[in-house]
Amino acid sequence: MPATDLEIALEKIDPGTFEKLAADILSERGYDVSPTEGTGADGGRDADLRRGNETGVAHFTTRNDWKQKIRTDAQKTVDRGLNRDFVVFVVNQLPEPPRVVDEVRDRLQEEFGFPTTVLTRADLRTQLTTRNPYLAEEHLGIDAAKPTTDPVEEMEALKDERLSMIASRSNSLPNALPGGPCAVLHLFPVGMFSTDYGVSPTKLPSPPLFGGGQSHLAGRPVGDGVVSINNRIQEEHPEYVFLAEDGYIEAVTTLTFERTTVDAFTPTEPNRVDPEVGKHLMQIVPGSLEVLAELGVQPPVYAFVTLLGVEDYQFPTSYAGVSLGASLRPFSDREEPKHSILETMDDDGTGLRPSLDRLWQRAGRQKGSPHFSNDT
């Protein structure tokens, strides 16, 4: 099935949010749920349950080894002498084939002697899209009732639209840019296309400055978001960071490129892309995620790195006296390595590594970005 907002959010959900979501889902299924404190992390019960005259135990897990985990939890329920009529396990995994779940349930019931229910991501998805979509909005920031679409396709379409505006220096950009190549970072939360953040530009938090750090001045509202730039005196500025009221970040710089001056007495050298461009983009990530979190964004966040207008540009073969590779190649006009996925809202920028590695490998450096390899 398509990787929908809901599907991705359930796959990437953090354990704390999952416990709250699972408890509410069980409540909607007719259980009286009493979450326990301090016992989930060591394999103890996550909630006590009651249904009619029967009492039970619930265990929640986001671990990939869910079969081993729920068996361990079942054993601990027995070892602790918890006299329960039933046990419910809620996992965020999507076992294939589905019959695996029935086999695991039957083995648990046979071994431990209590009726067992196992709810998987498929059960959660069905309940959130049909009976209780408000829980998806409350815990995941997603409109689960929205028709099924592929969020990555929507992100790609919006990215292409924004890149076209940047390439043409559209008057609709949040700040005027000088001509020349650009490095662009887009951060798209997984739920942005089904979430109305309901915040006007005048009330949006200020995005970070390009390269990281907060401006001492508030971001400037620009009609559909708020923009931060390092200098407000010039109408045209070589870089900006834009927070759209739709809940995404766009960061653009024209400063990481050097056009070689050629005269009759010097050999032709390639136009250069500053090898620090990846580090500059990484520095934007923490502050950007911080302001997105203020809007209620939940991970994951998809990160797209693009170099625009870089035909005949290339990375230098050395930097600060260190060799970066002897066979680096020039770029095409538009370089777009595959997106990276930021799994948490406290990513320090290293989550961009897959995209930056691909960009450097495209340029001819097999080991990828020198910001991550040990032998720069």
Automatic annotation (TrEMBL):
One of its GO terms (biological process) is DNA restriction-modification system. GO terms for molecular function: DNA binding; endonuclease activity. Residues 10-53 form the Restriction endonuclease type IV Mrr domain. Signal peptide: none annotated. Keywords: Plasmid. Residues 31-51 are annotated as: Disordered. It comes from the Archaea. Pfam families: Mrr_cat (PF04471). InterPro entries: Restrct_endonuc_IV_Mrr (IPR007560). This is Restriction endonuclease type IV Mrr domain-containing protein. It comes from Haloterrigena salifodinae. The lineage of its organism: Archaea, Methanobacteriati, Methanobacteriota, Stenosarchaea group, Halobacteria.
